Amino acid sequence: MPLERMDSVLDLGTLEAMTLELANRIRAVVHPRLGEAESRAFTGTAIGGDATLDIDREAEEVVAAFLEEEGNLAVFTEDLGLVTRGEPQAVLVVDPVDGTRPAAAGFESCCVSIAATRVIDSPVVDDVEVGVVRELKWDRTFWATRGNGMHIMGPAGELEEPRLSDATDTSSLFWAGGFRGRPYLPVAASVAELADECSLRGSVFDLGSASFIMTRILTGQLDAYLDPALRLLDEYPGLEPEFLKTGGGFVLCNTPYDVSASILLFEEAGAEVTDCHGRDLGSRSILGSDREHQMSSLAAASPELHSTLLEVVDRGVARVGELWPELERAELS
Description:
By secondary structure, the protein is an alpha+beta fold. It folds into two domains: about 10-160, 2-Layer Sandwich (Fructose-1,6-Bisphosphatase, Chain A, domain 1); about 170-325, 3-Layer(aba) Sandwich (D-Maltodextrin-Binding Protein, domain 2), CATH 3.40.190.80. The protein is built from nine helices and 15 strands. The protein has an eight-stranded mixed beta sheet, sandwiched between helices. Helix 4 (about 185-195) links the parallel strand 11 (about 175) and strand 12. Helix 1 runs antiparallel to helix 2 (about 55-70). The mean pLDDT is about 95.
């Protein structure tokens, strides 16, 4: 159901505390299930088309219970869609398990991601006021309130400073991409130049969680994140059958619930993130998971590196057209 416009009386501190509390509750339930065989069980298909595993189902139940308990709240999740209770004073965009497959396998690259705003009517990325990413296997929390900086809290409650890489040499980059649910060959071709260049002195990773990858840039473990899949589809509409085939009838790229919290973390830390056209993401709606709401992602530790990688993506997109000459390239504004 659409949200009606109303003025929120919720203060920012309460919104932050609420968001952190929900992240803690989700982790408390999901952490014991990491790596369990039962966690891999397929339980259905989310509204955006992605597969729901049993570990997702249990995490989504925590969100639903929190909504009932709090009231006067709206939440958007991968499985629930948009659900409201009472007269919403805030909207929480929640990915309870960002990195479902790593979580089901017991790997560390999985997080809770929550973006929160008191803007009730058609909120966009720039309206996000609180962003929280909470590790599910490890015990570190990344959070930010708009205008108040980004914070990292370690497992013992100690505060850590963000450590952004100053890397600019593409031959030694440590970076991550995203391939799951996307047709592998054209996506790989679009980033092959960078993958080949850094194969000895650097590395490329596919970690299965956008929020985990982006927060590793904030810790200095990674330099950049490239997910150009949706730009490829924008540029070459003829690839759509391949996207639908790989995605089980859906186009599956990053959605607002994947990256909205991390975008705020990046902005507050001074890192750089846009889509793979180089366009600002601030005006993008955060309530949706269909193709209209999906986005490509280019995140880097610095504006200088981001600019360099945007040129790499431009060349990679052109390379796809050379390798598949039957594809007609769209004229984009």
